[in-house]
Every structure is written in C-alpha cells, then in structure tokens.
Amino acid sequence: MASNTFDYAVVGGGLVGSCIAYGLSKDSQSVAIVDEGDRAFRASRGNFGLVWVQGKGWDYPAYARWTRQAAGLWPSFALELLESTGVDVDLRQTGGLVMSLDDAELEADHRKMEQLSSHTNGEFQYRMLSNSLLKQKIPEISSQVAGAVFCPHDGHVNPLRLFRALHQGMQQNGAEYLPSRHINSIEYCHGEFQIKGDFDEIRASKIVLCAGLQNSKLGEMVGIEIPVVANRGQLLITEKLKHFLDYPTLHVRQTTEGGLQIGDSAEDVGLDDGTTNNVMAMLAARATKMFPVLESIKVIRAWGALRVMTPDGKPVYQASTSCPGAYGVACHSGVTLAAAHAEKISQWILAGEHGDVISNFSSSRFNV
Questions:
Q1: Contact 328, 281 (CB under 8 A)
Q2: From CA 48, how far away is CA 157, in angstroms rounded?
C-alpha cells in the first residue's frame, strides 16, 4: 500500500480515538490517527480521571449495564498497558464516594442507586453511609456532610499516564500518528474514504470519527448524525499534602503525588475552555465545607476543559448506511469507558457487526 493509504483512519487522537486506535492496531491492521492536535478543544489532558459507575444510567438501563461492564474491564486493561508499554496508569479501584450536604440530596441519590441496582439485576452494588460511618473511612470529613453513597466499582487513574500509555501502545503496534492535521473534507468513492485538508490526502478502507466536538460536522460528510455540544468543567489543583483521602469522590480526589483535584462544575458556555473566579470560588467553598482541613492549603493551578455531550449525556456509537465502513463514536466518559472502547468497540468496528450495545446507543434514538 502507498504510505498514505491505510486499512483504518481514526479521526481524533484524544482518549476515545486513542483507545479505539489501540484496539484496532492490536489486530495487525494498518491504522492512521489523524489528529488536529492540541489546537483542538478536548478534555484528554484536562479531565478528572475517574472510573465512575454510580449515577450513570439510573435513567437509562443500557448505560447502567455498559458502564458497569466497562469498569469491570479496567483491571486487565491497566495490566495490559503496563506490560506492553511499561507505563503504570495508577489505577486504584477501591471504591468511590458521592457525598451530600443535606438529607434531601442524600435521599435523591439513594433513589438513583436503587434504580441502578434494579437495571443491572443487582450487579451494581452500593452502600449508603451516614456521617458517622463516613468518618470511619475519612476521619477528616466535616460534620456538615449528611452522608454519602459508597460504590465499590468506582476508582480513578492518572489520565495523563493513560493518554501516554495509549499513544505509546498504539504506535508500538504499528499505528501511525499524524498530528496537526485539520480536515476540510471526507469523500467516499468506490469503497474508499479520501480525507483532505491542510496535508497530503489520506486514504482508508474504513474511517472512525472520534473527533469530539468536531464529530457533528465530520459526521455529515459520511452520512452519520452525531449531535454533540460543549459543556465546560473547571478544575483546581492544590499543593501536595500528606495522604488522607483513600477514596476518590465526585468532587475531590487525591493523586498519588499528594495534590488534590477539585472539580465537578458544569457550564453551557459554548467553545470557551477558560476559567472564572466565581466557579473556582464555588468549587473551593464546597471542598472546604466537606473537608475543613483544606481551608489553608494553596491552589497552584486551575483550568477549564470542554466535555463532549450528546443530547441525553449517553454515548453514541453509529455506523453509516450511506457510506459503508464509516463509524462515529462520541461520549463524555472517555476514562470510564476506555477499556470497553479499546476492547469491545474496536472489535465491533473490526467485525462490522451490530450487537445490543451498539443498537442501544445509536443516534437514531434522538429521532423518535
């Protein structure tokens, strides 16, 4: 084959695209990752690093089951990356906590957990913790916290190490990473995709769109509807502290190095990945209300990043009917679903089959 012709072109080199390219490249396929690079809006270097099950899919049973399955694949996936690349992604799946500051919020969370358990035939596990039980796990917790949900399936990883491991792994497998490529058009001609832009034309037998917020525009070129919008989250990073937090929480997690990540804001502000004083102040106030020990620590940096959100917040996995061999993938849970994307979704693309998981997350659900 010519050097610009591949079996698969994966458009987008963030976490979603890298996972799928990694999975495809393990099957001895020639794979090109066509990536706009750091000029693109994406959260691969700006996310919270959670492998998170609780709360996801309480209103959509298929998503509850899919997220639970994805989390279960993570231990073997992390070990595979370590053995193949030498990069430890620092997976710690000891369970996670969602804390509530009042009884009404805690009761609402309890109802969601009951629904999640029902959706998964009891496979989803959780425990409701009072403040006194929570203090047994985290002595530093404030008395203002009404209680928490503990989910043993939850955990966290170092997202930067994960990103590095995926890029190293897929290139070790023979995939070709092509950064700083802005795509102007994708044409389907005689069973081949021709990708054109500010670079020499790239050709591929199959194409997988994993371009985040660009997926809507690119999807139209190959007959796929991928509706996505941006949702901004802001994060605070503190100085390194003595270890005190054994479990990730939805709002605060402590890294292996000792620093804290503080987040979980959500803003509809379009393509603005900046930071604002009022949101940062809100994040800091909530964190110190939960953990009074944080009142005097220093914040050393902060950033904003854009989530890729579908209309219902669930993933989209879609094959084109007008351009056979074109696929679209969009989601905001790039870390949680990473192992499933590398294994299950890449295999779906390789086989060209439509199983239950894929049919449950078709974009056609938005048209009924």
A1: no
A2: 9
Which letter does DSSP use for residue 155 in this model? E
**Sign (positive or negative) of CA dihedral 228, 303, 11, 319:** negative
Q: If we measure between CA atoms, which residue out of 314, 310, 308 comes closest to residue 358? A: 314
**Biggest alpha carbon distance in the chain?**
67
Q: What pTM did the predictor assign?
A: 0.95
All residues at 6 or more sequence positions from 27 whose CB lies less than 8 Å from its CB, including other chains: 346, 350
- The answer to whether residues 309 and 41 touch, using CB atoms and an 8 Å cutoff, is no
Decide if 37 contacts 21 (C-beta within 8 A): no
DSSP secondary-structure letter at 344? Answer: I
Which domains are seen in the chain, by residue range? 5-48+160-227+313-367 (3.50.50.60), 96-152 (no CATH), 229-309 (3.30.9.10)
Beta strands in 64-182 (DSSP E): 96-100, 127-130, 147-151, 155-156, 176-178
pLDDT in tens, 324-333: 999 999 999 9
Asked whether residue 205 carries a pLDDT value surpassing 90, the answer given is: yes
- pLDDT tens for 123-165 read 899 999 999 999 999 999 999 999 999 999 999 999 999 999 9
